[in-house]
Amino acid sequence: MAASKCSRLNGELSRRFLASVDTVLFDCDGVLWRGDEAIPGAPDLINGLKRANKRVFFLTNNSTKTRSMYAEKLGRLGFKAEPEEVFGTAYCTAIYLRDIARLKGKVYLIGGRALSEEFGAAGIPHLGCGADHVTGTQKDWASVQGDSDVKAVVVGFDEHFSYMKLNRALQYLQDPSCLFIATNTDTRLPLEGGRAIPGTGCLVRAVETAAHRKAQVIGKPSSFLYDCVVKDCGLDPARTVMVGDRLDTDIQMGSTCGIRTLLTLTGFSSLEDAKSYQDSGALSMVPDYYVNSVADLLPALSEERQ
Amino acid sequence: MAASKCSRLNGELSRRFLASVDTVLFDCDGVLWRGDEAIPGAPDLINGLKRANKRVFFLTNNSTKTRSMYAEKLGRLGFKAEPEEVFGTAYCTAIYLRDIARLKGKVYLIGGRALSEEFGAAGIPHLGCGADHVTGTQKDWASVQGDSDVKAVVVGFDEHFSYMKLNRALQYLQDPSCLFIATNTDTRLPLEGGRAIPGTGCLVRAVETAAHRKAQVIGKPSSFLYDCVVKDCGLDPARTVMVGDRLDTDIQMGSTCGIRTLLTLTGFSSLEDAKSYQDSGALSMVPDYYVNSVADLLPALSEERQ
């Protein structure tokens, strides 16, 4: 099994692969786009898959957009997409709190507008959005008045993250019954030109370090985004593939869920990273296949349609 | 050896212990005070040790005060102390950059006024102090203009810690030749009444997670504060003891430096924590002795002086 892993997908193998697949799950950042630039050929691939009657879903750890905002960005970059095809951590965290945790109470939210909107749509009361600058002295920080209805702390991407937010999270989390949820733990957000900015994982580690607790993580490599797709839309695992640029999130999640995995080299992880996991026996982070770019599948797709 | 560790220091054992010691190294937070309240009896002990011709030094991971500010606080709470007896991480980080790293360039400092003052006194140019709120978009954050003279990032306690500071640190640390120093990694700062606020360790973990690098740590359990005492003042390790409230910092440092160690139970670690380390064989974090409070040594001290 190990020997057949991490095969380059091209030629006849690509054609057989596409014929064996009904449902394709795509990560977004580093797979379909970098920052605000589409990966060349990626829109043609997505739109072509749909014309070939494949189902396409977008599974993203990034919590800065609602389902509608993602559909709008996908459309702007040339991808045909509907909000109901998007399973991002802003939406899925709201679903988790409403349907799985059945939260009775408010959320203290370290996060941005998209999380706030998805929480609002799911009927989850929350507070904490926007700037929260420090004032006063250490003694004041330790005795900040919390809202006694807060029963969960959620950490997502928040460009207004501050010492004061970290402190409020600690004060809430000292109650062991307070839930502690992270949208995702990606360490960096890759942008155009190889640049990067700190990801949500940095904020999660800060809060975990203060609270002496580990957060429960909604995003990949957890299977929860996949579970949401299965629940809402159904799928046949034997005819489904996860396409992503990160071995420790996208590929690991695919392995956990028992579906095939495809690494694309336009984002975070390299082929050397995959070989290194293969050599060390960490096979759940080794993809079944890899391509240099998702556009590499275009020739096989156009042949399949002829 | 293990069986004789973690003995309660009282009665005759206290008297023999004090007679065997010339130099006493004290941690401060949780040992001599909590927040702005002295531990009852602690000032009498420090002042009594000095009258008995013991040398006393203060070794603190807390980077929010200069040597002078610590001497002032010690004095205000009733302790006799001179700035030259204080070896805090604000001062010792400046000494490290000047004398060990021999830094040629500027420091990007995540830290407060005390670090800035000690850096200034040591002639180390630095920038970054004060509030730094986020503006613009992700693309702007990834392309923030750095100062090309910055050759080190230092992370200490900073109540103005923000996403923008985290981002600036990441942009500097992407250059592998940029030094990465942390004053300390304490996860919480204990205050009066059992309350706590997030410690420098939370900020360090956030920056480490973004940078994909580990910081070099100046504070305990590193031996650098001890090395500074030895270099400036000299001491006989066989007649020196480290007194602290944290097993993973104070007691570990004492063990590393080959001096005796005394845990006091007025702060972070409990006797159960020490027994647990003893049972698991992590003996470098098991103290030689413990007391409920440093004030427990007062009777033996007054007898010694008679």
TrEMBL record, chains A, B:
<keyword id="KW-0460">Magnesium</keyword>
<feature type="binding site">
    <location>
        <position position="220"/>
    </location>
    <ligand>
        <name>substrate</name>
    </ligand>
</feature>
<feature type="binding site">
    <location>
        <position position="245"/>
    </location>
    <ligand>
        <name>Mg(2+)</name>
    </ligand>
</feature>
<keyword id="KW-0479">Metal-binding</keyword>
<dbReference type="InterPro" id="IPR006357">
    <property type="entry name" value="HAD-SF_hydro_IIA"/>
</dbReference>
<protein>
    <recommendedName>
        <fullName>Glycerol-3-phosphate phosphatase</fullName>
        <ecNumber>3.1.3.21</ecNumber>
        <ecNumber>3.1.3.48</ecNumber>
    </recommendedName>
</protein>
<dbReference type="InterPro" id="IPR006349">
    <property type="entry name" value="PGP_euk"/>
</dbReference>
<comment type="subunit">
    <text>Homodimer.</text>
</comment>
<feature type="active site" description="Proton donor">
    <location>
        <position position="27"/>
    </location>
</feature>
<dbReference type="GO" id="GO:0043136">
    <property type="term" value="F:sn-glycerol 3-phosphatase activity"/>
</dbReference>
<comment type="similarity">
    <text>Belongs to the HAD-like hydrolase superfamily. CbbY/CbbZ/Gph/YieH family.</text>
</comment>
<dbReference type="GO" id="GO:0005737">
    <property type="term" value="C:cytoplasm"/>
</dbReference>
<dbReference type="InterPro" id="IPR023214">
    <property type="entry name" value="HAD_sf"/>
</dbReference>
<feature type="binding site">
    <location>
        <position position="27"/>
    </location>
    <ligand>
        <name>Mg(2+)</name>
    </ligand>
</feature>
<feature type="binding site">
    <location>
        <position position="29"/>
    </location>
    <ligand>
        <name>Mg(2+)</name>
    </ligand>
</feature>
<dbReference type="Pfam" id="PF13242">
    <property type="entry name" value="Hydrolase_like"/>
</dbReference>
<dbReference type="GO" id="GO:0006650">
    <property type="term" value="P:glycerophospholipid metabolic process"/>
</dbReference>
<dbReference type="Pfam" id="PF13344">
    <property type="entry name" value="Hydrolase_6"/>
</dbReference>
<dbReference type="GO" id="GO:0004725">
    <property type="term" value="F:protein tyrosine phosphatase activity"/>
</dbReference>
<comment type="function">
    <text>Glycerol-3-phosphate phosphatase hydrolyzing glycerol-3-phosphate into glycerol. Thereby, regulates the cellular levels of glycerol-3-phosphate a metabolic intermediate of glucose, lipid and energy metabolism. Was also shown to have a 2-phosphoglycolate phosphatase activity and a tyrosine-protein phosphatase activity. However, their physiological relevance is unclear. In vitro, also has a phosphatase activity toward ADP, ATP, GDP and GTP.</text>
</comment>
<feature type="active site" description="Proton donor">
    <location>
        <position position="29"/>
    </location>
</feature>
<keyword id="KW-0119">Carbohydrate metabolism</keyword>
<dbReference type="GO" id="GO:0046872">
    <property type="term" value="F:metal ion binding"/>
</dbReference>
<keyword id="KW-0378">Hydrolase</keyword>
<dbReference type="GO" id="GO:0006114">
    <property type="term" value="P:glycerol biosynthetic process"/>
</dbReference>
<dbReference type="InterPro" id="IPR036412">
    <property type="entry name" value="HAD-like_sf"/>
</dbReference>
